[in-house]
Amino acid sequence: MLLISLKLFFAILIPTLVGAALLKNIFTCTKLKRSVFLGFSYGLGQGILAQIILFIGALGGRFEVHTILKALLIVGLVFYGKYYFGLKKNSFMPEENLLDASTTETGVGAIFKGAVVLCFSLYVAMLFWKAWYWPIWGWDSMATSVFNAKVFFYEGSLENLKYVPHAPFPLQIPFSILWLNLNLGQWHDEYIKIIFPLVFLSFAAIQHYFLKYYTNSFWASLGLLFFLSASLITTHATSSYRDLFLLYYNCSVLISLMLWHDSQDNAWLILGGLLSGFGIFTKLEGLPYFLIHSLLLITCLFKQKKPLKVSILAFIKFTLPGLVIFLFFYMYKSLSGILMTEKTHMNFSGIFLDRVGWILQRFLEDLFWTSNWSIIWFLLCFAILLHIRVIKNCFRLQFLLGALVLFFGVPFSTSLIVHDASHILSRFTLSRIFLHFFPISIWLIIFIYYRVITGSRQGLDCDSIA
């Protein structure tokens, strides 16, 4: 058991260190709070790992521990070498800590924060216990992730990719599972689930300090409680579905865009572009989300009224990683003769407008008549209806609300044009799609009521994202 734990630890640690090296190269003039740094490093590391495995497989290489490890070490050494060489070239490093929004809590605030920390600790312990001791479950988790990873594990290559179930689907999660089993030296159905509570923990850290930076510790802790209250989060943090990873990438991109707009630090723009690109390689929905991210970036550029040349350069910096990741995998699939499945076949000859009522009904049923989301969507509706003026006067809230509408538009528009929309609008699929952008509802609630209760007193500036 100890040996297995050590193998898993190093299998997680090495990609995370590579992600940390890349993050250090991105944020050369800004220090991030340690928990946020680790949260981003984990997601970047998993994304880099998947791209390395894809590159090895596309070249006809074998999936072996030493082959992938060598590639990871080379990439990591290049990143660290570039970082330390850059330090010598420019020894000045500001002591700014962008997300260090720590405040000293007293009285009721300290008690509330302590209670949240206790609840969160127990919650995380429960997640790791379930992930560690429960075997893989759920049809889609096996059909789209684990089975493919098992084929790659025993075949040792991508040679038979076209014959596995859902061959056109992105491969980040199967590759992450493959990497863990290669390090273990044998296939394990329980231990490989460790990556899912880790991505939950990473995003929870990022969201908490994001909310804390723009509000205070009380509101950030409240946002964390709202996040924990969604039962679907627990399900996906202890299973092998790909949706929690897409939530991580999708919502982290929005956080990066907001911080970039507020700080004008291009490091956030580059980070957001990388995370958006890795989202493309996580699920098929990652591509339309990438387009939404690009549209939101354009909105921010118009708001900033920068010169055209500067705006074009910013757009290229953001979109280039995603385009490279998408085109590389698309070309590989095309050359391998892998076509899209009937599930994703579009009907471009017309739009099924008679489905609108059915689609809206399914949306409302999932948002308000299931136990997946606690009462979060009810709270959001009340907040919007009661405080519409606050939203009209705050670009940050308009940005988030617009993003939420665009994300809802993805399953809505897709259901109008596919031949068979039943698989999209089914109870389980629709909930998983909503999970990808569910945290936006929490941010809106927190920011609206923070603005209502303390905004006028503290002079919260809503002309910027902040």
UniProtKB/TrEMBL annotation:
Name of the protein this chain belongs to: Glycosyltransferase RgtA/B/C/D-like domain-containing protein
Transmembrane segments: 36-56, 68-87, 107-129, 191-211, 217-237, 267-298, 310-332, 367-387, 399-418, 430-450
Signal peptide: none
Organismal lineage: unclassified sequences, metagenomes, ecological metagenomes
Keywords for the protein's UniProt record, in alphabetical order: Membrane, Transmembrane, Transmembrane helix
